[in-house]
Amino acid sequence: MIIIITPEKIVPNETEVINELFQEGLDLLHIRKPVMNLEEMKDFIQKINSEFHHRLVLHSHYDLAESYNISRHHFREIDRHNELYKSLRDKTISTSVHDIETFNELSENWKYAFISPVFPSISKKGYGKDSEILNDIKKRDNSNVKLIALGGIHEDNIHIISDSNLDGVALLGAIWENNQPIEIFKKCRQVVLL
Questions:
Q1: Which residues touch 2 (CB under 8 Å, ≥6 apart)?
Q2: How far apart are CA 144 and CA 118, in angstroms?
Q3: Inter-CA distances, 181 with 11, 72, 171, Å
Q4: Helix or strand holding residue 181 (H, E)
Q5: Predicted confidence (pLDDT) per residue in 100-133, tens digit
Q6: With left for phi above 0 and alpha for psi between -120 and 50, is residue 186 left, alpha or beta?
Q7: Which residue in 61, 95, 102, 115 has the most C-beta neighbors within 10 A?
């Protein structure tokens, strides 16, 4: 599975790129726009072809889900601890963790969890340079929740993820900090499909 996370700020032609990514086989898109207000979020979602709305994951403005056929919500660690997800019924929920011990404690309510940073981050310079996550994944004992690698993944190291005990990858900086995001996605997808 390949997931792409939007950058926090709008990038030029972002929704056009998103539509093309879906046409090229993108599984899920996480919309993480913490600075967007409700109207801006509506406008953003409306620019994504409605045939792909069921593959969108909201990180905020969960109340828009019903209007746009979105059944997936992502919760940050703090929101998970505050149990904000418990008010949602019949939704697919995901979360984020930063160590395998926390992942192993997740209940089967969670469809998947991002674990990061796997490699030094592309979008957050200096973040994750001493990460031991790839090594720690060997301690995974939770088979009820899918484990998705995030952080510093690009076309030249994604093969390492494919050989690990992981269920998918999430891309952010490799896509949005590149002049050819579609080509990078195609290269990454080709490795994951091998």
A1: 25, 26, 27, 168, 169, 170, 171, 185, 188, 189, 192
A2: 21
A3: 12, 24, 11
A4: helix 181-193
A5: 999 999 999 999 999 999 987 777 766 767 778 8
A6: alpha
A7: 115
- At 84, list the tokens: 């904000």
Q: What is the pTM of this model?
A: 0.93
The amino acid sitting at 14 is E
Structural contact between residues 177 and 142, judged by C-beta atoms closer than 8 angstroms = no
What 8-state DSSP symbol labels residue 156? T
Tokens for 119, please give them. 């490699």
Q: Are 112 and 145 in contact (CB under 8 A)?
A: yes
Task: Give the relative orientation of helices 181-193 and 14-23 as an angle to the nearest 10 degrees.
Answer: 30
